[in-house]
Amino acid sequence: MPQLGFGVWQVPDDEAEKAVATALEAGYRSIDTAAIYGNEEGTGKAIAASGIPREELFVTTKLWNADQGYDSTLRAFDTSLEKLGLDRVDLYLIHWPLPSKGLATDTYKAFEKIQADGRATSIGVSNFLPEHLDKLTAETSVIPAVNQIELHPHLQQRASREKHAELGIATEAWSPLGQGKGLLEVPAIVAIAQKHGRTPAQVVLRWHVQLGNVAIPKSVTPSRIKENIDVFSFELDTEDLGAISALNEDRRIGPDPATFDVA
Ligand code: NAD
Known about the structure:
By secondary structure, the chain is α/β, with parallel strands linked by helices. It has a single domain, classed as Alpha-Beta Barrel (TIM Barrel), CATH 3.20.20. Helices cover 42% and strands 14% of the residues. Strands 1-2-3-4-5-6-7-8 form an eight-stranded parallel β-sheet. Helix 1 crosses helix 9, helix 3 crosses helix 4 and helix 7 packs across helix 8. It starts with 5 loop residues before the first strand and ends in an 18-residue tail after the last helix. Nicotinamide-adenine-dinucleotide (NAD) binds next to helix 9.
């Protein structure tokens, strides 16, 4: 899985085709969509039009909350594949754990069947807290390949990252730039950016890379799409990493997975 991918949340279907095409031209090979984003069709069109061999691409989509449950998961997956115009995805994720519904294990058993049938190369989860991972791994056979969680310098998720390391799960950061809100103006980040002749977004994405996270920044602006993947020719030093580490506030932008149950 490429360590840097392109996320398309909040990109309308017609704009997704253009944004994904721009990302593929810029060199991204990993695209993160979801059934609930409503842009699997646009994403699929851009993939088809790109002419890039399928095996060079890494396509992720996610099962929406309302479709949790064994049979409904199998049906929802068929719909996602059809919209994407693909015969397999590289990664299929349970979007939220929904602990109040208690359906994650049945849902994941359908994921295991989808993987066994060769229609999702890897399966995983999103927004699972350590306790959700403990329960899921106790009740199912395949360790999730990935847990995609909110993660940025204001929410560094140390407990989750430790749990992932213990279980052998890759950590994927959503809203890796903190949605751009304020984080990119934080003086410590601006100072590190000036020191390296880079932008604040590049510094934050480079921090993810050096931490070992997979990151999937989103932008619809071509110059930013290019800027966000150009983070492999400089390195943050120990002092930079320490300064960013000190920015943790355990502050979420998105919902708390312990209570989020919107279907
Ligand atoms: P992000 O942290 O990627 O921030 C995106 C915003 O930051 C942009 O809309 C833009 O305003 C700004 N930005 C982007 N590049 C910039 C640059 N170079 N300079 C200045 N500003 C810049 O936030 P996101 O879109 O919330 O998250 C990224 C992806 O993560 C989503 O598109 C989606 O694929 C995924 N995601 C998953 C979940 C989940 O529940 N699994 C939830 C949210 C997002």
